[in-house]
């Protein structure tokens, strides 16, 4: 049965129970979606993520946990950059005096809400970067 393209659906095969989507409309896999895809999240499921990637489900609405993360991320980056450099160096297997810095990511509005806009399959927003030396 041909479909009119709503939600990016191109074809539905009732016999084999397969839905074909327009791959150009699919959303990208992000860090938030990876655990549910691997069925390793108590908060979501592979089916829910598949519906979200296909555009059939809008995703979870903002809630207090998302808001808390947005508030805490800059505080954590600041704390790591000021007082936790030796711990970062140790975790990375580097000498304690290694030139490590914690950098802010590009603003989400300036990168189209995707820090990996050149990638076709994976995308999303990072919380920050750990920079070692001039790398």
Q: What is the gist of this entry?
A:
This protein is of the alpha+beta class and about 140 residues long.
Structure commentary:
The chain has 135 residues and is an alpha+beta fold. It has two domains: 6-53, no CATH class; 64-132, no CATH class. It is 31% helix and 13% strand. The chain contains four helices and four strands. The chain has helices at residues 31-37, 46-53, 64-83, 85-91, and strands at 9-13, 18-21, 100-103, 129-132. A two-stranded antiparallel sheet has the order 1-2. The protein has a two-stranded antiparallel ribbon with strand order 3-4.
Count of distinct strands: 4
Number of domains: 2
Percentage of residues assigned to helices: 25-40%
Task: Give me the side-by-side strand order of the main sheet.
Answer: 1-2
Separation, N- and C-terminal Cα atoms? 53 Å
Residues in β-strands, percent: 5-15%
How is the biggest beta sheet arranged? 2 strands, antiparallel
- Name the overall outline: elongated
The overall pLDDT, averaged over residues, is 83
Secondary-structure element string: EEHHHHEE
Radius of gyration: 20 Å
Number of helices, counting only DSSP H or I runs of 4 residues or more: 4
Structural class: alpha+beta
Q: pLDDT below 50 for ≥5 consecutive residues: which ranges?
A: 1-5
